[in-house]
Amino acid sequence: MTEHTENPLASSDSIETAPASDKPPEIPAPIDASPLAKGSLAMAALREIVETVALFAVIFTVARFSIGNFIIVGQSMEPNYHQDQRLLVDRISPMLGWLQRGDVWWLIQRPATGVWAGLWSLPEHSSREALQALTAHWPGQGQWLPPVAHALTHFDWMLFPLVWQWPLN
Prior knowledge:
By secondary structure, this protein is an alpha+beta fold. It has 3 helices and 8 strands. It has helices at residues 35-66, 93-96, 128-135, and strands spanning 67-71, 86-90, 108-109, 120-121, 141-144, 148-151, 156-159, 162-165. It has a two-stranded antiparallel ribbon with strand order 1-2. Strands 3-4 form a two-stranded antiparallel sheet. A two-stranded antiparallel ribbon has the order 5-8. The termini are far apart.
């Protein structure tokens, strides 16, 4: 004798289904790329271009008024600078009191390899003594500023800034 178990889904209490229809289900129409949609894409692209040009103009204007680009003419700045070399002069810091008129920054180009390859930066020396040996025969005098601790992601750097004042003549 076999036992018959009733299928709970087959009972009259089960979920009702919609009656079968002869019509196939409706498929929504594809989105039409009408001229209106194409126009809004063109407007978005035009807006991006205008924003980019405006941002460039602002950055260019700020840089132009805050940094002066000068070419060395003649021998007036030798032995440090020579004919046709270029100087970038900060116009903002003197207004803020960081620098004085006529201050010049000494920049060197870093080696072609490494993390800061080719970057123009302040010179680095292995120790204060190495810098003192380099400047021992320079005209003028140097003044050590308070040390600055600079924490990078992989090490801490102790900087010993030196401000050098050249004689006027």
